[in-house]
Design brief:
14% of the residues lie in helices and 33% in strands. It has eight helices and 37 strands. The chain is an alpha+beta fold. 47% of the residues are buried. The chain starts with 9 loop residues before the first strand and ends in a 19-residue tail after the last strand. The strands form eight sheets. Strands 19-18-17-16-13-14-15-12-29-33-32 form an eleven-stranded antiparallel beta sheet. Strands 10, 11, 30, 31, 34, 35 and 36 form a seven-stranded mixed beta sheet that branches. Strands 23-24-22-21-25-26-27 form a seven-stranded mixed beta sheet. The radius of gyration is 28 Å and the shape is elongated. It binds iron/sulfur cluster. Iron/sulfur cluster binds next to loops.
Length: 496
């Protein structure tokens, strides 16, 4: 049963949910517009169970798997420090001055701590999506659409990845009703680990699913580049040395040329008379050798010879051996110059196969990463303290740890409590929505009880962890790799 809202005003046999501004009237046996609250025999209940994280310690203090306790336990005699109350399924309070649904105290290594949990309603939120691919997905700033609605845009690419910025208050509230609804649904699906197909204006169609390989124009990406073309030359120059006279690593951003590159100079590789198209940046590094695309190295070419001019006859010679390869090793071709100094494709020599495969071997698996970003603004903070700015200061001073469903977050410097979290670090289906539209995300604030009192916390509503009873709780193992929310190991940049 949800602790708040409980003041559901009855209208006939319907009850009114006051957990968000929508204020649904809910018939018996039905759920509200967000599917999170229901009318169960005249009582307003939170549909999903409230999630508690558990971890089990051996006597030596090592964490062991949840299902393999070091000694028999009856489920309730575990040290309270090893149970953490998340906000997942905790419910929401509205309007803002009401205390958060759960304010739970626990003694952790002799220190009285308190965790304030709520399912925050985020109108100001979105996701940043990192797509590990060399393939060009569309021009920066171009709209990203779902069902024809603009839900975000392409933003600056990063090393080996394309980046999207999706959601945000303008798409949730500033456009048409449909734009807001579609944006909210896409964010919800992405945050809950479901696949979403995104169409980019003047670009590609991309299927994104957190923690899974991206699919660009129907093609599943497998490898993330080892580096740019120049870096690839620097890494592998020695392994090519003596086996080939020239190597070009084709890259939409920085194409590398072995004989001109500093790595080639240090290995005394002689000039080859090669002529590259594009703009020379520094020796052996070329920009804009082609247009961006889904071909070799994120360019639009499928024939790498298109980026070469004629070889310099004063330097080049018949029989000169040339390897052309992409930044992932996915594309590679071997050539020898004929009498007219034209590159003729030949079978890849046996001694070059391994160095080419070494590029692929050094690539990491390509993944889609979804990072939720939200601002815990005025409303949410009032549920923690009557003087919200003190909570912000407490977070900035690292007296209060912020977690999202028990997962570590990065809190942005500057004003407010704007945080980011990798959605794969939360238990499944941690996110919800309300049709205002806005996303619902769990957020927990953990601090010393004395600090909580000092910042004007709702002390009347603090209750001990042991007081949480009932069937509507789900005990979930602590996610491996996440710092324990009560633990000292979490560095400040993880919200510690
Ligand atoms: S949308 Fe959900 S939280 Fe909001 S009033 Fe309706 S049932 Fe309650």
């Amino acid at each position: 049963m949800a602790p708040e809202p409980t003041a559901a005003a009855k209208a006939d046999d319907k009850i009114r949910c006051d957990a968000c501004p929508v204020m649904c009237y809910i018939k018996p046996g039905a759920v509200g517009a967000c599917d999170r609250y229901a009318n169960h025999d005249g009582e307003l209940v939170r549909v999903d169970p409230h999630v508690l994280l558990e971890r089990t310690l051996t006597q030596g203090g090592d964490v062991v798997a949840f299902n393999e306790p070091a000694e028999e336990w009856d489920g309730d005699i575990m040290p309270r420090a090893d149970r953490f109350v998340t906000a997942i399924g905790a419910g929401t309070t509205y309007p803002d001055y009401k205390p958060a649904p759960f304010i739970v105290s626990a003694a952790v290594e002799g220190v009285d701590m308190v965790t304030v949990v709520t399912e925050g309603i985020f109108s100001y939120c979105g996701v940043k999506v990192k797509i590990d691919t060399d393939r060009y997905i569309g021009p920066e700033t171009k709209p990203v659409r779902v069902e024809g609605e603009m839900i975000g845009h392409v933003t600056s690419g990063e090393y080996g990845s394309q980046m999207l910025s999706l959601g945000g208050v303008h798409h949730l509230t500033g456009g048409s009703k449909k734009e807001g609804r579609v944006t909210c649904q896409a964010l919800l699906d992405l945050c809950n680990g479901r696949p979403v197909e995104l169409a980019i204006d003047e670009g590609a169609s991309v299927v994104v699913q957190a923690g899974k390989p991206p699919v660009v124009n129907g093609q599943t990406e497998h490898r993330m580049r080892v580096g740019c073309g120049s870096a690839t030359i620097g890494i592998f120059a020695k392994q090519w040395h003596g086996k080939v006279d020239e190597v070009v690593v084709v890259d939409d951003h920085i194409t590398g040329v072995l004989s001109e590159h500093q790595a080639g100079k240090l290995l005394d590789i002689p000039p080859t008379g090669i002529k590259m198209k594009g703009r020379r940046s520094t020796p052996g590094r070329y920009f804009q050798v082609a247009e961006p695309g889904t071909g070799w190295g994120g360019t639009n070419i499928s024939d790498p010879l298109e980026i070469l001019g004629p070889f310099d006859a004063k330097v080049a010679y018949p029989g000169l051996r040339l390897l052309m390869v992409s930044t992932t090793g996915e594309n590679a071709a071997y050539y020898e110059l004929d009498e007219a100094l034209r590159p003729i494709e030949k079978e890849m020599p046996a001694n070059l196969i391994e160095p080419v495969e070494r590029i692929s071997e050094n690539c990491e698996p390509a993944l889609s990463t979804v990072v939720f970003i939200g601002g815990a603004g005025g409303s949410l903070r009032a549920g923690v303290t009557e003087n919200p700015v003190r909570l912000t200061r407490s977070v900035k001073e690292s007296l209060t740890r912020v977690t999202c469903g028990g997962a570590p977050v990065y809190v942005w410097p500057g004003g407010g409590i704007t945080f980011m979290v990798d959605v794969t670090r939360l238990p499944e289906n941690s996110f919800g929505y309300v049709p205002t539209p806005a996303l619902v995300a769990p957020i927990e604030f953990t601090l010393r009880l004395s600090d909580y009192e000092a910042l004007g916390g709702h002390m009347d509503h603090v209750r001990p962890l042991a007081a949480l009873t009932g069937d509507s709780r789900r005990h979930v193992p602590h996610i491996a790799g996440n710092p324990w929310p009560f633990g000292p190991s979490s560095p400040p940049w993880l919200g510690g």
